[in-house]
Amino acid sequence: MSPPVKKPFAIGWEGAIFLALLLYPLFPIFESLFFRATQRSLGEQLPLVFIFALLAYGLNVVVGYTGLLHLGIAAFFAVGAYVAGIFTTAAYSFGWPFWVVLPLGVLAATVLGLLLGAPTLRLRGDYLALVTLGFGEVTKFTLRNMEKITAGTRGLSPIPPPSLPLVPPSAWADDYRPFYYLTLGVLILVALLLHNLERSRLGRAWIALREDELAANCMGLNPNKLKLAAFALGAGLAGLAGVLYATRLTSTADPNAYDFNRSIFMVCCLILGGLGSRLGALVGVIMLVGFDNILTPIIDSKIQEWFPNSGGRICLSFTGWRLAIFGLALILMMRFRPEGIVPSSRMKHELHPDEAVSNGIDPITMGRNTGEVETLGRKGGQS
Amino acid sequence: MIFAADSAFWQAFTQQTIDGLAFGALIALVALGYTMVYGIVELINFAHGDLFMLGCFLSLTILAAFGLGGLGFDATVKDPSPVYVAVILLTCLLVAMPFCGALNFAVDWVVYKPLRTAPKLAPLVSAIGVSFIFMNVGLFWGGAQDVNFPNLIPDTNLMSEGSGIRFTYKDAMVFGVTVPLMIGLTLFVQYSRLGKAMRATAQNPTAAKLMGIDTNKVIGLTFAIGGALAGAGAVVYALKVNTISYTMGFQNGLYAFTAAVLGGIGRIPGAVLGGLIIGLVRYYGSAYVGETWAGALIFGILILILVFRPTGLLGSTTREKV
Question: Counting one residue from A and one from B, how many pairs have CB atoms under 8 Å apart?
Fold first, then answer.
């Protein structure tokens, strides 16, 4: 099965989603229909989805393209948020505008990514996962403890809205649309950047590294430099998302907003959507953020209606089942559809080599690592 | 600090050492489960800490059944006699250990076993999923708030009054449970038939299989033994620390994993050594750096160890197989 030949002007599902999102605010009818059904404004929720999608894109560079399990992306998200907090709030005398802080947050996160990555990236997969996890936790503790700088659990606020021509400052609070288009614009720009990057020399090198580090190395690629580049880009995108997040909330929020749960939530989004696929990251974020922020409150209020005497018992609320649902989803995905809901075509072939064989693809070129452990349960005759 | 080494300083230091070693022995018990599982299937079992948490809630349920209160039940037994306490402690151990062991075995059978041939990321992510499910069970079991665990073992000091050092019944209980278990495990792995099979499977699963070892069974039993140790650790932890919550598994599990890595993952004496060091770091860190920094300190050590000596203190240097 050769990859489907793209029609020259086909925009694909990703383009269709972006187009729909661009058009959404132009038709207030959808907003009011949605509000009638759920008592919530979709337009208010979507910027958050876009911000998390940015974060997922960043994580996808590291986990999806390069195949390094990163469990501390929230630390870089936090750096972006706190750079915004420190350089814009009245607590400090900087008072810099959003458009200066935005690149600064990206820069700070990137530098931090390089600093963490340089000594640690030679580690093996699961050890690297642990280092990133530990780093995320250290960052959280640091933010919480250095109260003089970060205001501890109170968070830095208020972060002023960005200044844009034609948009009066009051509009940011009254209307969802300025922020909607700001975040969506950034998201689409990043998606375009990644789209080109995936086909560039660097992007293909990352994928080669993910497939087989040893072979990639033998072909003259430098794994450490490539991993560092992925790490830095991932961190930078997370920083970008962080600045936008803090600006959206007008506060850096509690350091607990940047803990392991945030990181693992993003990993869940990627796995659900499909590792290494931009569309997958977007779909995963829409599904999980939608689940958390839209579906859960609706079901909870329905349960309240049906069982008014639940007495606040936690197992009778849908929120109470959140972790179990996430956990079960992760397990089932890994077992039955490890490539995700909207996989990149490469991942699909990789994870289902048998189907690829029946489709006439040579399984050897799929280049899967077969370590000692992986041959454990394999029946004879397939080695 | 160091040059002001008067008696008060040393007294405090000795106290930190005792507390640290007691906490470390507990962590070591959990770390053993990590290290054994990692040694045999190279899986960071993220759910192990949450298994430990479930063991704590099971102990609390047993205490409630014995009329000591907890989980919304009223305490009917006031001032239990030492014999009664000993019976309860033994019951807790005898129930929690098989429970956690069986649970871990079942999870391996249902979740990890089908993924043995999958890329390494798959079981790791599944382990995170199992951890979430366990946390949810813990949430339903004990609620979202911290839960008080009945203070069953008295805090009476066993040292003389003048020494200024506290070594309580609780500390004695911690060492009394953990040390025999560790010795037992070491002997078991070293001398029993199953222990030998475990070591063989850890060294080279394919060869072990060719030699007629049912590797899946051995792996399952490794999970069971690791789980049982976490169960024992849970009973002791709950009785010593007296506060449990459904989120405790994550933090303590990470401490334990750090201990396992510190000692050299896959090495049983390494896990014990690592656990003790982590315990000491936590208490020295609390005393001399600041309580809020103790967690950051431990994770900082984890990063440093992984960067500079990924094989740990007792681990041997092996090249990664290609």
Answer: 157
In a domain, A374, yes or no: no
pLDDT digits (tens, 9 = 90+) for B66-111: 877 777 677 777 777 888 888 888 999 999 999 999 999 999 999 9
Q: Into how many domains does chain A fold?
A: 1
Among candidates B135, B136, B307 on the partner chain, residue whose Cβ is nearest the Cβ of A119: B307
Q: How far is A377 from chain B (nearest CA, A)?
A: 6
Query: What are the tens digits of pLDDT across the range B40-74?
Result: 888 888 899 999 999 999 999 998 888 777 776 77
Cβ <8 Å between A377 and B117: yes
Which residue range is the domain that position A147 belongs to?
Answer: 12-365
- Mutant choice from B37, B43, B117, B222 vs A, greatest count of A C-beta within 10 A: B117
- B322 is a domain residue: no
Of residues B222, B191, B246, B166, the one with CA closest to residue B43: B222
Q: Shortest Cα distance from B156 to chain A (angstroms)?
A: 34
Is A321 in Cβ contact with B136 (below 8 Å)? yes
List Cα–Cα distances, B197 to A341, B32, B188, B224, in angstroms.
40, 17, 11, 15
Residue A237 lies in a domain: yes
- The answer to whether residue A335 is domain-embedded is yes
Q: How far is the alpha carbon of B253 from chain A, nearest alpha carbon, in Å?
A: 12
ipTM of model: 0.85
What's the CATH code of the domain at B116?
1.10.3470
